Amino acid sequence: MQPTGDFHVHTNFCPHGSLDKMESYVKEAIENNLQYLSFTEHAPLPRNFIDPTPASDSAMKWEDVEDYIKEGNRLKEKYRDQISILIGFEVDFIEGYHQDTEEFLNQYGDQIDDAILSVHMLKAPDNTYVCIDYSTEEFERIISLFGSIEFVYETYYQTVKSAIKHDLGKHKPTRIGHLTLIEKFANLYPTNKTFDSEIDEILKLIKEKGYMLDLNTAGLYKTHCKSIYPNQSVIKKANQLSIPFVTGSDSHEAKTIARGFDQLPTDIMLSVPSKIYKS
Ligand SMILES: [Zn+2]
Ligand SMILES: [Zn+2]
Predict the structure, then answer these.
(1) In total, how many domains does the chain have?
(2) For 48-80, how does the pLDDT look when each residue is reduced to its tens digit (9 = 90+)?
């Protein structure tokens, strides 16, 4: 029997999400008969890192962290007979800022049950930073900044590799978020090459480290993507390596909890976040 859970969920603490209260996500998860719900809010960005998105809305605020954890713990207790609630973060890996990320994890690692390590930010050739999944306009600007779309993809996969390799201390997340997020606008901006060798290398590293993959349905609902992250060919390769997958909707509103889970492949190994076993 495969575990049923939505392990990638945002909240009203996310500035680019909805105002839906955390409790409404819990109720929706219970209605969907899920065994688990994991809140993985975007961890605050390093204090001296300037959010490169036009709206500066990529992550939760530092001053909200305590309230977020507190509310998660309240709900965990209140609904304990109906669902297992986890509280955690989606942590950004940003080239050049891993020290700050490690400090954040050291500060809050003991208080959380789960975490995802994701790459949304890339360092551009002119040493500025960009956010790859913000908008089509922004993505177009990124392509011209890098000189070619292929170089954007290469840099993305290099950064993912770096995220997997880097030591981020004992609370480093062991699950890699939406591995093919770089394909969010792929139908609009196709590439002239495939990135098989990069992907193969990344999956090999994930296997070696004993990490898991976020199996993320959000891409299915993106106009220019229409695919699960990672895409089907990567899922197949990861499955051949017996890399475990952890399901997530990446919901930014309550009503999309577990959305698209009926379209997930059925012949793969689903797992639960590693910390669950420790408690
Ligand atoms: Zn988000
Ligand atoms: Zn993400």
Answers:
(1) 1
(2) 999 999 999 999 999 999 999 999 999 999 999
